[in-house]
Design brief:
By secondary structure, the protein is of the alpha+beta class. It has one domain (3-65): Alpha-Beta Plaits. It is 21% helix and 25% strand. It contains two helices and five strands. The protein has a three-stranded antiparallel β-sheet with strand order 4-1-5, with helices on one face. A two-stranded antiparallel ribbon has the order 2-3. The longest helix is centred in the C-terminal third of the chain and has 10 residues, at 46-55. The mean pLDDT is 93. This is Ferredoxin.
């Protein structure tokens, strides 16, 4: 099952914890806000993405199931 990573830019406060916990999928911009490197999270990295999502202090990071046609290549 394909999982997609998403950040809510309104809720995010730029703590940067997500990039520390999941550097394979998240980088930080010059102001410390997350940049999702690839929305589609490989199966072997889902556990790391979940840890980053669970650690977000403002609940701005989300890991979602891809809807039909979304995330398919």
């Amino acid at each position: 099952m394909t999982r997609l990573l998403r950040v809510d830019p309104i809720a995010c406060r730029g703590h940067g914890l997500c990039a520390e916990l999941f550097p394979e999928g998240i980088a930080l911009d010059d102001w410390g806000y997350p940049i999702i490197l690839d929305r589609e999270v490989p199966a072997e990295l889902v556990v790391h993405a979940r840890r980053a999502v669970a650690s977000c202090p403002v609940l701005a990071l989300h890991l979602e199931r891809a809807r039909h046609g979304e995330g398919e290549r």
